Amino acid sequence: MADRGGRRAGGSRRSRAAGNEEASGSSLYERYKDALRRGHVAALRGRLDAAVDAYGEAASIATDRPLPHTAIGGVLVRMNRATDALAAFERALAMAPRDETALRGIADVRATLGQRVAAAETLDRLSEVLDGAGRLPEAADAARRALELAESKIRRRHLEALAARLRESAGDEAAELALAQVLRLLEPAARERRPDAAAQEGSEAVDGVEGTPASIEPEAEPEPEPIDALAVGAAAEEALYSGDVDAAREGLLAAAAAHRVAGRTVAAIDACYLALAVAPADVDLHLLLADLYLERGWRGPAIDKILLLGRLAALADDDATRVRLRALAAERLPGEARLADLCA
After folding, report:
1. What is the pLDDT of residues 91-150, one digit of tens each?
2. Are 157 and 146 in contact (CB under 8 A)?
3. Four-way CATH pick for 27-114: 3.40.50.150, 2.60.40.1190, 3.30.1120.10, 1.25.40.10
4. For the range 237-244, what are the long-range contacts, defined as Cβ-Cβ under 8 Å and sequence gap of 24 or more?
5. Closest CA to 36 of 65, 11, 10
6. Angle between helices 245-261 and 283-296 (to 10 degrees)
7. Residue 333 and residue 209: Cα distance in Å, rounded?
C-alpha cells in the first residue's frame, strides 16, 4: 500500500509539475504577444524609442523568434540608424536564414548605405527563397531589383529565365504585373543590342506596358523602404500567426496605404495581394488595386478588374458596389468603350 501510495504521490507531483510548466509556457507566450502589441502601437504612433524597447522585450522573451528583430530593424531605419538596423535584420536572419522580411530589410539598408553589390547579393538570395516557395512574381521582382543595383551577366540571364516563366502564366494578374516591370528593365538593353529593330519600332509601346515609348527608358519608381509600413506589416504577420484574419487584413491595408502615400505603388500592390490571400472577396481591396493599376498607367488590368467586379456585383445584385464602380470609371476612365455598359 505504501509503495502504491508513494507511486501515486510521485505521479501527482509530476502531473502538477507538468501543469505548472504548461501554465508557465502559456504565460510566457502572452507576455511575448503583449510586448509585440505594445511595440506595434508605439511604432504606429511614432514613439520609436518605446517601440524599440517593447520589441526588445519580446526578443528577450522569445529568443528563437526572428519577428521582434525584424520589427526593431524597421523602427531603427525610421530613426536613421542604418548600421544598427542592419545588425537587427542580420540577427533575425541568423535565426531564420530564409526569413523574407530580414532579407528585404538587409537589402534595403545596404542599398541605402551605398553597398549596392552586397544589397544585390541579398536580393539574389531573396529571389531564390521566393521562387522556392512558388512565388514567381515576387521572385522576379527581387531579381529585377538586384539587376538594377548591380549589373551582371548571370543576373541578367536569371531574370530573363524568370521572365520566360512569367510569360507562361497568362491570366495571372500578379505574374503579368511582374512581367511588365521586368520588361521595363530588359527591353532597353535588348534594343541596344538590336539597333535596327529599335529604329523600326520607333515610339511603339514596350510589350505588355501600355503607354511607354520604346525609345524612352521609363523613370524608375522609388525603391520600397522598410519604414512605417514594415512595422504595420509585422503587426499583420503576428495577426495571421494568431489566426486573427480581420486584423491581418486591416494591417495589410494600412501598409498598402502607407506605401501609396509615399509614392511606392508597387509595394502597395504587393501588400494588397497579400491581403487578398486572406480576404479574396473583399471589394475594397479589389477597388484599391484597380486604382493603383491606374496610377501605374496599367489601364488594361484596371479595366479587366472593374469589369470582373461589375459582373460579380450584378450576380449578387450588389447596387452599392455598382455605384462605386461607376464612380471610379467616370473619374479615372471617362469615355472608355469597354465600360460603356457598366456606366449606362
Report:
1. 999 999 999 889 999 998 999 899 999 999 999 999 999 899 888 888 998 999 999 999
2. no
3. 1.25.40.10
4. 237/67, 237/101, 238/33, 238/36, 238/40, 238/67, 240/278, 242/33
5. 65
6. 20
7. 17
